[in-house]
Design a protein that fits this description.
By secondary structure, the protein is mostly helical. It has a single domain (6-63), classed as Helix Hairpins (Orthogonal Bundle), CATH 1.10.287.310. Helices cover 85% and strands 0% of the residues. It has helices spanning 2-11, 14-37, 44-67. Helix 1 (2-11) packs parallel to helix 3 (44-67) and helix 2 runs antiparallel to helix 3.
Length: 68
């Protein structure tokens, strides 16, 4: 599943990826808030969201480097 996400993100434009990153970071903030309040049922979402953000940032950096 992770490879499919990376493959899909590589096909996206850099602007779309950066907006997706900000969206995921906002989601991560909400997840952390829910976890601190004890309302988060699936705590694995924290790790998967963090890894998805890192994956998107890596692809964004690769696109920037390839453009130079």
């Amino acid at each position: 599943m992770a490879k499919a996400k990376a493959r899909e993100m590589r096909e996206m434009a850099a602007d779309a990826i950066s907006s997706k990153v900000t969206e995921m970071e906002a989601n991560l903030f909400n997840l952390r808030f829910q976890a601190s309040m004890g309302k988060l049922e699936n705590t694995a979402l924290l790790n998967t969201t963090r890894k998805d953000i890192a994956r998107a940032k890596t692809i964004l950096k690769q696109k920037e480097t390839a453009a130079k």
